[in-house]
Amino acid sequence: MENIALIESFSEFKDDKSIDRVTLMAILEEVFRAALKRKYGSDDNFDIIINPDKGDLEIWRNRVVVDDGEVEDDNEEISLTEARKIEPDFEVGEEVSEEVKLVDLGRRAILSLRQNLIAKIHEHDNTNTYKQYKELEGELYSAEVHHVRHNAVILLDDNGVELVLPKSEQIKSDYFRKGESVRGIIKEVELRGNKPAIILSRTAPEFLEKLFEQEIPEVFDGLITIERVARIPGEKAKVAVDSYDDRIDPVGACVGMKGSRIHGIVRELGNENIDVINYTKNDSIFIARALSPAKVTSIVINPAVGEEKARVDVFLKPEEVSKAIGKGGVNIRLASMLTGYEIDVQRDDVENVEDVYLTEFSDEIEDWIIEEFKRIGLDTARSVLELDVEDLVKRTDLEEETILDVQRILREEFEA
Fold first, then answer.
1. 130 within 8 A of 196, measured Cβ to Cβ
2. Cβ atoms within 10 A of the Cβ of 183, count?
3. Which of 62, 191, 274, 289 has its CA 20 to 30 A from that of 29?
4. What is the model's pTM?
5. Known NCBIfam families for this protein (predicted)?
6. Of the candidates 343, 360, 346, 349, which has an alpha carbon nearest to the alpha carbon of residue 409?
């Protein structure tokens, strides 16, 4: 009966976790062999027969018959006299199989067996969960809010598996109620101790990419490819798209008539503003598009130095500068994230194409003086000459004498 009771303790988990028969047999045998090894020092000469469906368990110890007084190992050998108590016609050299009852292992060993059994099943279940969800990293996933904590939301999926949506992975405007369905991507799956930790994210750029795949058929079918994504979650995002089919307008297909296609994505992201632009491998054109809605006059790309990002000077008309930068600098930050360049916005006040940038005078004007003019948005010769000396003294930290000297040098250039 004690065998059946122990098997039943396993069945409780088997029903809940759907452990296959092969795994069930392996776990049970591993647990019993560990107990036998502790009790007898070795489990090599034991046969374990398990029928978990019926709750049957048999343990048989196999020992070799030796002459009386020549037993060296009680676990592997049995004296002739003891063997003949089991079966009167045993002879020296034959093998005796004797059933071992669980009660023979002792009460403490039986309790330990049950604990080990439970631990092994949990370990198996956790390992399976880890493997299953590890394969889903980066995929769109839905789960139901189980309870809300101050630093995370705990979710349960249809399999009863727990997922965590940390505060850092939530959009600022997110508000969740118990029982509500939440979408995100599985950002990371890791084992913490023996328990899998499944982290959901709604702020990762990949979440926006997966929403495009789900909501826009051409993206799902591969007719439109998402080349790059940059997000400031809950505020604004920029998505660069391309198509290998010249008949398809990738931006128009993603946005839809009057924004009909992208509206669902915007709503899912808490009204995050989404700019969709055409991708190109031409960096200058791509940077100009990334800064939309601003219209760029010209671009100068400076190569990267050491580990620093490559920088680019973008020149715009004065009325376009604020559009390029965006509220709180959001637009230019996203453009930098999308293109991979550090972007410096410069005012292009030049109406006359014969104007000259101040940097051209670095052999006559010290760099720190040029930087002082650039700090107030003056980066060309004409922009400095067009302002009064008195105005320049007020707006810069330069002396009147220095400003007059600079204007003289610039004026001579144009006269020449």
1. yes
2. 15
3. 191
4. 0.63
5. NusA
6. 360
